[in-house]
Amino acid sequence: MTAQPKVSKELDLRDAGARSSTENGFSKPPFLGFGLGLRSEHYSEILDNRPPIDWFEILSENFMVPGGQPLKILDQIRASYPIVMHGVSLSIASTGEPNWDYLRSLKALAERVEPRWVSDHLCWTGVHGVNLHDLLPIPYTQEALGHICSRVQLVQEYLGRELVLENVSTYVDFAESEMPEWEFLSELTRRTGCWLLFDVNNVYVSARNHGYDPVRFLEGIPADRVVQFHLAGHSDMGDYIIDTHDHPVSDEVFELYRKALDRFGPVSTMIERDDNIPPLADLLEELERARRIAENVLPSQSLLQLNDRRNEHFRRA
Amino acid sequence: MSRLAELQSLLQNGILAGDNECDGVLAVLRTGNGAPVAERFGIYTNAYRARLVEIVGKDHELLVEYMGEDLFNRMALEYVDAHPSSTTNARYYSRNLSLFLAENEPYKRWPQMAEIVSIQTALDDAFDSEDNLAAGLEDLSGLAPEQWAGLVFEPHSSVRTLEATTNAFEIWSALKAGHEAPPPEILDTKLTLIVWRQDLTPKVRPQGYEEAMLWKEAGRGVAFGVLCEMAATFDQPETAAERAASYLAGWLNAGLLASARTC
Ligand SMILES: [Fe+2]
Predict the structure, then answer these.
(1) CB contact, 8 Å: A130 with chain B?
(2) How far is B93 from chain A, CA to nearest CA, in Å?
């Protein structure tokens, strides 16, 4: 264990070479390969066997606690694996006051974890001091865009890093929306420099729920702004789909993933499972399916570099 | 108020009220494909309650077992309606549950329920409380005999104490061990429970009356010599120092103290 922090530092250096810079001085986060959402059910297996997973995404709020076992385990896992932070309570679209306690705690966690990036969702979770613990939809209007852009800028400035924002699954849309979701996201990333977490399942779910072709969404997003993919399972209720994250990823979502790789190139990919959590081996199998699709779609060069890095990493670990 | 703020208030009120058919909300949503818009908005209103009830149930699995699912679900829904969440971390959502059970009918008629929840809440708080080194017996090894009276103590940051009026600890322990819960009882005298984290493991144990009194005084900065005098007035004076020393050894061995030093 004692030698492991060194490994992650060396990975940092290698990744630095692969970064490309953008006009505002920040650089595009690196392609990390194929990862998983870190879940407590798998802690001991990960720590005992160090399975060959390229990276983990943690749920930020799970570690926004004073101390004890969660942070201790996280310290051990981050010594062996690259980590990205994913939150659910930033409520970036909220018209309430910015929650400075939350932001302070998020920033402190980011300083401790040194994640490759910090993400949350393009949504709001409550106003008037209430948190509904849900990812709620927004109207796609110029007014909302202006408000959210100013919030993203505020948060990016406070955290000293660019945010990565994810499209959510929605079940209703507002009659007064002035543009499609993909146009809203594109404009948001253009104006603020934030990156996008493209949740392939959420695109599929929202497209079905609102009756458009998911490929239109895909093609509406700028090709160079996506830094992460989520793959997840849903529940098909017939008339609509609910984003439940309690099933394996569907064939349709894998098919859309193939098209997404085709458009966005090598983008860090992970499986998001939040309920009905299967053994780690099952998730690794699903992840393997994603990797095989990527091997078919992507130029072999982009994956070769990743393989070198992975082999090196696990030899040392 | 901006239009976005108006829409957010409107939706939030509909969700909190559990009103899928809320006219104001339906008027701003697009109708169209597939299911009726009230049914779609219902996905949010239903998910809101279901999610919070699930959070409370996961935090208090032994209470669910003790109450039975039906009574628990009814109670949890009432809790959700009485306590919209204000925390950004679901981990803290059920922190008012004990008080809710203690204050509201019919649950307050069964005071052991609120106390079972208090025990669990204290354990959960100890589990991820601030990291803080614990003092051990070895920290006192170099102490000269005349220095002991001047020892003062600082409790470990994970420590919480509770006062139970019922046999909730006995019930909680039985449920935890997978046994049948004993019948509820009101105790003749309050029982002090001490909850803390030893290394990474949260723990709970009852304290006898004398130990509880000395622990409380020690936490207020009272020196060991005075604790011995208090023990002497409380019970047999000849063995008072011995008893106090044995409590202290127990505290140090269990990791209950952050420091023990001479002032
Ligand atoms: Fe997602």
Answers:
(1) yes
(2) 10
**B14 to each of A72, A121, A131, A134, how far by Cα in Å?**
41, 22, 14, 14
CB contacts of A127 in chain B (<8 Å) are 5, 8-9, 12
- The per-residue DSSP string of B73-86 comes to HHHHHHHHHH----
Q: Residue written as tokens 């990291």?
A: B131
Are B129 and A68 a contacting pair at CB < 8 A? yes
Judge whether A2 lies within some domain: no
CA pair distance A130, B149, nearest whole angstrom: 52
Query: What CATH number is given to the structural domain containing A88?
Result: 3.20.20.150
- The pLDDT, as a whole number, for residue A10 is 31
Q: What is the value of pTM for the model shown?
A: 0.91
- Counting the structural domains of chain A, the total is 1
Q: What does the pLDDT read at residue A317?
A: 53
**Residues B88-117: tens digit of each pLDDT:** 999 999 999 999 999 999 999 999 999 999
Contact residues on chain A for B40, CB-CB shorter than 8 A: 171-172, 209, 240
* Count of Cβ atoms closer than 10 Å to residue A310 Cβ: 18
Asked if A172 and B86 come within 8 Å (Cβ–Cβ), the reply is no
Residue-level pLDDT at A312? 66
Q: What is the pLDDT of residues A198-217, one digit of tens each?
A: 999 999 999 999 999 999 99
Contact between chains at B52 and A133 (C-beta distance less than 8 A): yes
For residue A89, give the nearest of A74, A102, A70 by alpha carbon: A102
Minimal Cα–Cα distance from A234 to chain B, Å? 14
- Which candidate, B185, B161, B192, places its Cα nearest to that of B171? B185
Whether residue A100 has pLDDT greater than 50: yes
Cα–Cα distance measured from residue B185 to residue B164, given in angstroms and rounded to the nearest whole number: 11
- Any domain includes A3: no
Domain that holds residue A166: 21-316
- Output DSSP code: residue B19: -
Question: Is residue A13 domain-resident?
Answer: no
Q: Please check whether residue A239 touches B, CB under 8 A.
A: yes
Question: Which residues make beta-bridge pairs with A58?
Answer: A85
- Highest mean pLDDT, choosing among A100-109, A296-305, B133-142: A100-109
pLDDT of residue A15: 38
**Any domain includes A245:** yes
